[in-house]
Specification:
Elements (H helix, E strand, L loop, with lengths): L2 E7 L3 H12 L1 H8 L2 E8 L16 E2 L2 H5 L6 E4 L6 H11 L3 E4 L2 H18 L3 E2 L10 H8 L5 E7 L2 H13 L3 H10 L8 H4 L2 H15 L9 E2 L7 H9 L2 E12 L2 E12 L11 E8 L3 E8 L3 H20 L26 E11 L4 H11 L4 E6 L8 E8 L2 E2 H11 L10 E6 L2
Helix pairs in contact: 1-12, 4-5, 5-10, 7-8, 13-14
Amino acid sequence: MSVVNIGLIGAGTVGCGVIKILNQNKEIIKNRTGLTLNLKKIADNDPGRKRPVKLPKKKLTSDAWDVINDDSIDIVIELVGGTTIAKDFVLEAIKNGKHVITANKALLAHHGKTIFGEAAKKGVEVGFEASVGGGIPIIKSTQESYAANNILSIHGIMNGTSNYILSTMTEHGYEFEDALKEAQEKGYAEADPSFDIDGVDAAHKLSILIMLSFGTFLDFDKIHVEGIRNITSLDIAYADELGYQIKLLSIAKSREQGLEAGVYPTLVKKGTQLADVSGAFNAIYVVGDAVGPTMLYGMGAGMMPTASAVVSDVIHVAKHLSLGNTHPAMPHPYKSKGNSSLIKTSEISTKYYLRFQAADIPGILGNITSCLGKNNISIESVIQKSRHLGGGDVPIVIMTHEAKEKNLVSALKEISKFKAITGKTNFIRIEEL
């Protein structure tokens, strides 16, 4: 088979990128693969709206089912987004024996087990490279390049919006709201940025990598997720003074007792690979038992990088079709080498950055450190700025040695009752890669 017919559902930003690549690089793809990728039908609920690419009217439809029920179409690309109608489109396409390509991380995070199960039954492939890291080839790397490894850990900057905001706060001393406003003005953040700045988007991507790397479908709602709304310019400045930068990291680690998994702001040592990732770029740092530490870096979103990943999946599936064989996306379910149960966040041990806001009175630092010690938390360093004439509030910053989170939470609950504590305490985990 040298001609492969494709149907596209969703001609939005990424969909237009896919159309552009298929038109613009048609000959490059044909020369490299011997395949002709024929975009036969395009479905969009608003086919008449203005777009950055020209859509041939004879291929346009407002009904996605025209694509799904067309027997001549081999591959369906789903770029609708969301977890409702998109799920129906994907499952029906699979039922009809079509291969599916999607960039829909939320759909796979919540319904991946069902989708991959149905695909395996029908012997069709589900391509999802674009669901994590935009144009970064992390999915194929995990499925192929790391296939001989027991993956030990994943640390990822997987949301360009949050990374842009934190980078702007670091470089210009902005407060969070000012950095968010700039990100929105430059098109890096949506009008409602909640999924990005609250860590949900990054958690969707992490759950997909956990599925591939550790062989388990986690209940998405059990993954610990925190965003960056509470990060202040003061925290950025103190982190810098201590030799760190603050990043929103998606983290998964294989431990003897199970898996650590979560998305949260993290102090990362300055000068390390992840700390140096700035702006809207993404990076994913993977450690395997054989390969050692590796990092993939690139644009994690945007029309063309994401479209590039979508088309790479199309080519991958089209090659199999041309050879008369298919390889379902997860043909060999496996049990990971270690325990794949999720460890409660309260049981995780790490180092912490703590910032207290306290009345400038004698003895408060001693009271804080005494309470921490009572809860089995030892101190690595302290920053207490000089006292103001006439009193007033002062920040007290403490770096701890490794401690169990439930002990820290218990100590902070006690400390919050001190009369001298005048505001909410900020604590941020520290990752030593």
